[in-house]
Amino acid sequence: MSRKERFTPQEKEQACIDYIEGNRSRSEICSELHISTRTIQDWAAIYKKYGVAGFAKKTKNCSYSKQFKIEIVEKYIRGEASSIELGNQYDISSSLLRRWIQMYNANIELKDYYPKQEVYMAEARRKTTKEERKKIVEYCLNNNRDYKDTAAKFDVS
């Protein structure tokens, strides 16, 4: 997945300043930038907590355990806090938290996530035969499409 940002940190900062100080309405900002009202609220929460530094480009994903995800989602469902408040409290983007909530409500299993940077390489680690590639794909499909573990097991990218 690409990490190319649609807006520069300075553009996000200006939108937040306009929103927070009431220089322009939320709908006016969202219409101009073609973003949702939820996005400007998320940006404003980030800006209030971290300033413009909160909009710096992230270079890697964070790791979250299944248990942690469930705990946070259940706090939201019990009404202990909003997604923005929980995001600020645990330093998680509220959009990611909302995705966890949607998955939880759809009875989709929340899984542990531990990124394996070494698996994602631009070039193949070693040559494979057509038969071996078929075996690798079959293994991957039979193991819930776990690409990272498959790549690590067979030493391929």
Describe what this molecule looks like in 3D.
The chain has 157 residues and is an all-alpha fold. It folds into three domains: 9-55; 66-105; 117-154, no CATH class. It is built from eight helices and no strands. The chain has helices at residues 9-21, 26-33, 37-50, 66-77, 83-90, 94-105, 130-142, 147-154. The radius of gyration is 20 Å and the shape is elongated.
- Low-pLDDT stretches: none
Class per helix and strand makeup: mainly alpha
Mean pLDDT reading: 83
| Strand fraction | under 5%
End-to-end separation: 16 Å
Helical content class = 55-70%
Q: Give the biggest sheet.
A: none
Structural domains: how many = 3
Q: How many H/I helical runs? A: 8
Tally the beta strands. 0
- C-alpha Rg, in Å? 20 Å
- The global form is elongated
**SSE series:** HHHHHHHH
Could you provide a short overview of the structure?
By secondary structure, this protein is mainly α. It contains 8 helices and no strands.
Topology:
Layout: H1 9-21, H2 26-33, H3 37-50, H4 66-77, H5 83-90, H6 94-105, H7 130-142, H8 147-154
Protein traits:
mainly alpha; 157 residues; 56% helix; 0% strand
